[in-house]
Amino acid sequence: MEDKIKLIGESLYRFQSAINENGTTLEDYIREHYLGKWTSDDLYHVSAIRTSFVNAATRYMIDQGLFNIEKVMLSIITDPLAHDIEHTPSIPYKGHTYLTTHSMIYSKFLACSNSNVKGIYVDSPNIRLEIESPMRTQRGRYLVDFSQIDVELRRNRGLLLDDYLYNSEKVIEILNADMEIIMGFFEKMIVAACEEVNRKNADSLKYFGIVLEVPKTPFPAFPKDDCVKKYGPRGYEEKTGEETKSQFFWIRGLLRENYDLVYPYLLPHEKKIDIRNIPSASVFNYDILAKSIDAKTGKHSAAKEILSGAIREWLFEPIIERIIDNKVLPVRPVIRNGNIENIDELGGYGPFLYFASMKGKDGKPLFPDTMGGGIGIERTLYSILRGDRIKKIDDVTFFGKNPDSHPLYLF
Questions:
Q1: Exposed end of the chain (fewer CB within 10 Å): N or C?
Q2: pLDDT tens-digit profile of 115-125?
Q3: Distance of CA 88 to CAs 128, 198, 221, Å?
Q4: Does domain 40-314+368-396 have CATH number 3.40.30.10?
Q5: Are 145 and 166 in contact (CB under 8 A)?
Q6: Which sequence spans correspond to the domains of the chain?
């Protein structure tokens, strides 16, 4: 502990010396970057809106019969993520190494194991050491630590591998029905939150000079392939938003995480689809994007993603192949006689994959089939409040650690 205190102290000494060379004291820095924000009217009104939004979303989930579960911040397994990060922090404890969780994705799946549970939600912490913008620009979406309302619902469809391989028409019909259910779930949650903010925080919305619509359902939805074809591979989210009147809209079918369902992926006779050419229609996931609306001009800001989710891979065989093909693991688990013979090659995935392989007394898989997503609280506030006063994502946080803003986080 003394060594860590010394290292932190030395880092602060170098930081203080650097700002002194530029004619700034530590007091100046604290006043400008922390005290000024903590005592500002901006953060007061942001906090009022945040409280209403989160409370309304939570009440909605409780009314829908979901159970609240505990946060998981330390685990031997974490979300591998589809985008680059600096590294995954690890913590030695009791002779073992644990990881700080990028998200609670695997914990959410396992928490839905009980067939009587309709679903779960958690205000989950996330620690992601995001890489600084290579152009040293404010990207307006990344925080090193942030909060997210995570949701996972059981689907209870009971489709087996034979159904998956040989009855694709039935499977696709069920998947499309479940997509409507889960997208409708999140739409109603956002409607409830927007209604609450408009009812309780009209003064704060007026202070920011923005309008928060209570959106009509269903939200407009666009397949990613269509957006890319029309606008190109870069910036298609914002360009789609420019031609969409709704403040909230969906983009569907983004080939991304290994646990987001791609169907069909495995084919009969031990074949697979060509992973270089998977259409949006085969990717059962979704993002919600949101914009702010200027109260005077009616102008919309650029759209930002605030929620991502999916129907999840639920069968052991495609779970393994997706993990391998996404290069999360180099080898498949070798399971024999109640153990994993190559568990040393699987990192923290061994116990999770063993559970995914387990079957009940009836011979059916025990791993739950689920669907869900997570809505970033800070991202949402930044997206819907952006304007003359809210310029970057730091502005909606007390302690936001934006990789594009500060060289050292003091608090």
A1: N
A2: 999 999 999 87
A3: 7, 39, 34
A4: no
A5: no
A6: 40-314+368-396
* pLDDT tens digits, one per residue of 16-28: 999 999 999 999 9
DSSP state of 264: S
Sign of torsion over alpha carbons 379, 381, 386, 390: negative
Alpha helices in 153-201 (DSSP H): 161-166, 168-200
Helix (H, G, I), strand (E, B) or coil at 24: coil
Most distant CA pair in the chain: distance in Å?
73
Identify the CA nearest to 264 among candidates 373, 153, 166: 166
Angle at CA 349, nearest 5°, toward 348 and 352?
120
Altogether, the residues listed in the chain come to a count of 411
- Rounded Cα–Cα distance for residues 76 and 411 (Å): 27
Q: pTM of the prediction? A: 0.95
Asked if residue 135 has pLDDT above 90, the reply is no
CA 81 to CA 102: how far, in whole Å?
A: 8
Query: Which positions ≥6 away from 226 have C-beta within 8 Å?
Result: 280
